């Protein structure tokens, strides 16, 4: 890979012909049309948060360096931004009056409103730009290894860079587009940010059963994303049909796995809704995130709910009572040891050798209260299971 350092290109040069696509949240072109700011392999613009974009402008005004910028020289007169896209889009948007900064009096000022000398200081700032020339694979390999201005690429952003092409472009149009009207519905089940590729990552994770890189490599040159889209929509449709109420704990669950495991089972949405409400109202359920899988699996695996356990005071008091009665009768203080032919028939266990058990199972309505607590030896408690 050949590199050449350019030190005479100014912000004004870059901003000549700057185009920002509000819809897609992308800085597109600059440098009189010679520069593509957001090539396919680049991440979405994530600096538009009123902090990082403002920090870029403040750095420039104070004369601080904003760091190296890398261009990929595509042809004699065409460049793509390899690294620096967030910074370029920030000053490009500022110079075209897309956001304001606060002046020394705390007043919001757009570019057109700041003093002439400040405008000129920004426009005349010279940038340190490396022009790189190399094969696609060289450039991509190198791109993989750089970190961009303190925000490292996450896994999906890296994969998008490595497998860039038609397929990734179509995927991003669908799943990484904050203007997509479906995002709100999807957000009920998927956590993360559209711009950081979290929705795309989920869609690819589901369809590929966890083998995202492999899937992207095989489909890299596809000119449609039907399979990803259809599968993703099937999962979302299934969840929203089975669970008619949207609860905040649904966000970020492994819906792809749950869909694969339970899609063939029939469910009555009304019945499901009733069960969800009951479990949400149950003070003994500690893990609400487990409610959905618990219900899908037939309300059996209570471990998913992390049902509240008996506290130490309750255990001690029940232990004392049980042990006193057992000693009077000359039998084991574990009720299950005391019956039948058992070598431990008369054994008095220590408190630490026993565990608390629900007499009436929690799943059958038994409360986690003293009256429903029974101490069993550890072996019997385990055998009875967490039912
Ligand atoms: Zn026992």
Write a concise keyword list for the protein shown above:
387 residues, binds zinc ion, 11 strands, two-stranded antiparallel sheet, alpha+beta, seven-stranded mixed sheet, single chain
Report what the structure shows.
It is a single chain. The chain is of the alpha+beta class and 387 residues long. Helices cover 41% and strands 12% of the residues. It contains 17 helices and eleven strands. It has helices at residues 11-15, 52-61, 85-95, 116-124, 136-145, 155-162, 166-175, 183-187, 198-208, 212-219, 226-242, 255-262, 269-281, 291-296, 312-329, 335-338, 378-384; strands spanning 2-6, 19-21, 26-30, 35-36, 69-75, 78-83, 101-102, 108-109, 129-133, 354-358, 373-377. It has a seven-stranded mixed sheet with strand order 1-9-5-6-4-3-2. Strands 7-8 form a two-stranded antiparallel ribbon. It has a two-stranded antiparallel ribbon with strand order 10-11. A hairpin with a 2-residue loop joins strand 5 (69-75) and strand 6. It is elongated, with a radius of gyration of 31 Å. The relative contact order is 0.07. Bound molecules: zinc ion.
